[in-house]
Amino acid sequence: MAKYKRVLLKLSGESLMGEQQHGIDEKRLSEYATQIKEVVEMGVQVGIVIGGGNIFRGLSGASKGYDRVKGDQMGMLATVINSLGLSSALVAIGQKARVLTAIRMEPIGEFYSKWKAIEAMENGEVAIISCGTGNPFFTTDTGSALRGIEIEADVMLKGTRVDGVYTADPEKDPTATKYEKISYDEVYNKGLKVMDLTATTMCKENDFPIVVFDMDTVGNLAKVIKGENIGTYVHA
Ligand code: UDP
């Protein structure tokens, strides 16, 4: 039985790289597609926001001399590339998917609206919502918070390579321990890096919970959907 009826899944661009240093790893992409199809078949409506950090980030571009707004636009276009890749991988295994873009660019994708996303999900399609918020100076974490709240998802599932929120960076500090549950206030007060502050504030103000979990282990998405305690639940 699924714990959630409608979810917003956030995938970072970096996670699409798999073992590579850049770009898209087809094996990782197809593992994600398989996991997503599995939960749609459980009757869950799935909206997805993907990052673009595997291709371009406006902030790091700016430090190399790119205009920040153009760099952010490059980053948003990177999310479209990733979204097309994931939709292609889903369709290849028989899972319908629709790419929506927050910036008009038909015929690459349909121009996003809340209702188009909901129509797609109610039709059994995965709604892949690209371009983040559609504006520079934001991140796809904020895009995920925004779209998740807009499409009335029950929760944001933030798939990462670590299996939750820790007291310190577990890749650097071996004594770090994982939180099973934590509030947004504690995340602020302890300075934990879960999402950027804009995204965190949006989630807190709109009482929108997130689950941070390891999406790179095949089968974990279904476990989280079933309510198994494998990640960290962050709540208002
Ligand atoms: N971006 C943006 N507005 C948004 C979302 C993303 O300008 O609403 C740009 C920004 O340059 C960002 C890049 O797209 O660095 C890729 O997104 P993000 O860094 O969130 O990707 P991730 O870290 O999840 O791979």
Automatic annotation (TrEMBL):
Regulation of catalytic or functional activity: Inhibited by UTP.
According to its UniProt entry, one GO biological process term is:
'de novo' CTP biosynthetic process
Record's PANTHER family? URIDYLATE KINASE, URIDYLATE KINASE PUMPKIN, CHLOROPLASTIC
Quaternary context: Homohexamer.
Q: What class of enzyme is it?
A: transferase
Which EC number(s) are documented for this chain?
Answer: 2.7.4.22
Question: Which InterPro entries does this entry report, sorted A to Z?
Answer: AceGlu_kinase-like_sf (IPR036393), Asp/Glu/Uridylate_kinase (IPR001048), Uridylate_kinase (IPR011817), Uridylate_kinase_bac (IPR015963)
Domain named Aspartate/glutamate/uridylate kinase: residues: 5-214
Q: What is this protein called?
A: Uridylate kinase
Kindly list the positions annotated as binding UMP: 52, 72, 133-140
The scientific name of the source species is Dysgonomonas macrotermitis
Q: Which UniProt keywords apply?
A: ATP-binding, Cytoplasm, Kinase, Nucleotide-binding, Pyrimidine biosynthesis, Transferase
Positions with a binding annotation for ATP: 10-13, 53, 57, 160, 166, 169
Q: Which gene encodes it?
A: pyrH
**Which lineage is the organism of this entry classified under, starting from the top rank?**
Bacteria, Pseudomonadati, Bacteroidota, Bacteroidia, Bacteroidales
Q: What does this protein do?
A: Catalyzes the reversible phosphorylation of UMP to UDP.
